Amino acid sequence: MMQVSPSNDEILINVTPMETRIALIENGVVHELYIERSSRRGLVGNIYQGRVVRVLPGMQAAFVDVGLARTAFIHANDLQSGEGGKPIQELLHEGQVLTVQVVKDMLGSKGARLSADLSIASRYLVFMPYANSAGVSQRIEDEQERLRLRTILNDLQAELGCEQGQFIVRTAAEGIADVDELRRDMTYLLKLWEQIAQDAAVQTAPACIYEDLPLFCRAVRDLDRDSIARIRVDSRETYVRLRQFAQSLVPSAADKLEHYPGERPIFELHDVEDDLQKALSRKVQLKSGGYLIIDQTEAMTTIDVNTGSFVGHRSLEDTVFKTNLEATQVIARQLRLRNLGGIIIIDFIDMQDPSHRSHVLRMLERMLERDHAKTKLTQVSDLGLVEMTRKRSRESLEHVLCESCPTCDGRGSIKSAETVCNDIFREIMREARAYDAANAFLVIASQRVIDRLLDEESAAVADLEAFIRKPIRFQVEAMYAQEHYDVVLV
Asked: What is the value of pTM for the model shown?
């Protein structure tokens, strides 16, 4: 009989009054981080009674007020099953009340993305009240297992008299879920939907009629699997709530739950805090001496692979190949750790050997197999580029934890002191022409800019004073950023 090696994967749950943080540990290394602020909980999964405020025929979309800070957005393709193909102006009109669900959180300046094809999830099933056909997750590839689950699903729907909507079996059910467990999940979801439908009938738009589970419950529901050995929680109150939740909905997780009372912060185990800080950096070191540069923009994310100090022992091609292979593992982990989504361009180091390019792509595909988010890859181009997409449903780690730099306004660079000095000279010239009666000009700027004006640019300042026939004075303002200055008439 084949022996299965014991698993050491675990889930760490850190709870404070301000936020909840979840770390998924695989083979002793952090692979996924989830953060939910008490003041700004994620919206994905929430169901709202909304009101259409504007229909956009040209975009085949509409804006819907669901009571959030920004108006939400729904596309014609995201209306209920069976309505597709019709122009949106035939389906929606201003003032119409619509029951919708958030499928993408608000990102940057964009409002939440909505769908009217609702779905609610349990441990093993997803219930879609407006769907026409049942199914099994595409990630379950074994045909016998797919047939087993589909047969159970159809039998249970007939047994429970489910006439409206359909169920989809989630990946977590593969090889685990039996008839009783699926029956329990199905019963739970049908009762939950009945309650949601009742609330939708009496609520006045805009209003939230269903909020998804808190992060710690969702983590146990969605992340627990056979490979998870234990789930540690550093809050006694949350531990008690999780035990009650797990016993009723995720029994397989109940015995794995542990309360962590240790004095050492739970996120210092497995160096989670260090990895969290590193996940906010542009540069990621590879063990070989190479490194990645990760740049995240609103349009896409780019990942540049570099050999750095790694010189290898054979040929340049061999060095490049080994660096790219190592990079695939780190890239797959960083995508999950940072929760990067949308369009991603990976710039591998150029490889001359076509077999090396194929090998690197296969390795990247293999590294992405454990990713919960759906990914799609293209071939490695002659320039070493791989275009890929990764499904994005929530904000990236950087968007959750960071904001645009007030100094550079998110550009990543600021004007040099020399450039600012030239801007100041031009401003003085403009004001000298406009305000001839001024006795003098006072320049207020940062220390570095004033130092340059009094040193390297002193000759230029003297020439300018002679040209405008007015003295120029200088004052340091410590609170000013390098690009910030004022020219005052005195």
From this structure: 0.76
